[in-house]
Write a structure and sequence with these properties.
Distance between the termini: 20 Å
Strand order of the largest sheet: 2-3-1-4-7-8
Structural class: alpha/beta
Number of helices: 6
Order of helices and strands: EHEEHEHHEEEHEH
Keywords: GTP-binding, Nucleotide-binding
Protein name: Rab-like protein 3
Family: Belongs to the small GTPase superfamily. Rab family.
Function: Required for KRAS signaling regulation and modulation of cell proliferation. Regulator of KRAS prenylation, and probably prenylation of other small GTPases. Required for lymphocyte development and function. Not required for myeloid cell development.
Helix content: 25-40%
Organism: Asarcornis scutulata
Radius of gyration: 17 Å
Length: 219
């Protein structure tokens, strides 16, 4: 069997938002029984069928790079992470729906990854006002995933989801909200599964195909 082509997708977000549990669920369709803190970066692989069910269907490896979630401002911390940002093809931004700060910090994470050669200029959040222009010209596909949906009371869910809905709009990305301890949120045919597949297709297209549909030659 010929080696499969692959793409690199970063999984970014604060410590404790559930990135490792999410990656395990995406790659193995199983709940991670005993999650631990990620030191540095952990890489897992998901097999994805690009344009499944069409004549263009092709199987790819999706490398999911789970980057440790310290948001320390020290230059040494950022420079250490910078090595993981090389040659990225897509980014999954993960936040905890029960933690408003983790949602706000997604702007810092995306800026750090997309402008890895430029040190972020201070805090991006001031009284809830974001400098959205910093992301306007981004060409890297993004997906926003909110975790711990199960920990929000039913009576509060509309309020919380309304508050976080602006994230997808700001990043020009689709949004998925789920509970990483319940695989049904990514069940085949569900709206979340469709969004996820669409995101991976977009990542592959950006990496391997030109806009006119011709395949990019890789040497």
């Amino acid at each position: 069997m010929a080696a499969l082509d692959r793409v690199k997708v970063l999984v970014l977000g604060d410590s404790g938002v559930g990135k490792s549990s999410l990656v395990h669920l995406l790659c193995h369709n199983q709940v991670l029984g005993n999650p631990s803190w990620t030191v540095g970066c952990s890489v897992d692989v998901r097999i994805h069928d690009y344009k499944e069910g069409t004549p263009e269907e092709k199987t790819y490896y999706i490398e999911l790079w789970d980057v440790g979630g310290s948001v320390g401002s020290a230059t040494s911390v950022k420079s250490t992470r910078a090595v993981f940002y090389n040659s990225l093809n897509g980014i999954i931004l993960v936040h905890d729906l029960t933690n408003k700060k983790s949602s706000q910090n997604l702007y810092r994470w995306s800026l750090e990854a997309l402008n890895r050669d430029i040190a972020p200029t201070g805090v991006l959040v001031t009284n809830g006002d974001y400098d959205r222009e910093q992301f306007a010209d981004n060409q890297i596909p993004l997906l926003v995933i909110g975790t711990k949906l199960d920990q929000i009371p039913e009576t509060k869910r509309n309020e919380v989801l309304t508050r976080t809905a602006f994230l997808a709009e700001d990043f020009n990305a689709e949004e998925i909200n789920l509970d990483c301890t319940n695989p049904r949120y990514l069940a085949a045919g569900s709206s979340n599964a469709v969004k996820l597949s669409r995101f991976f297709d977009k990542v592959i297209e950006k990496r391997y195909f030109l806009r006119d549909g011709n395949q990019v030659c890789n040497f």
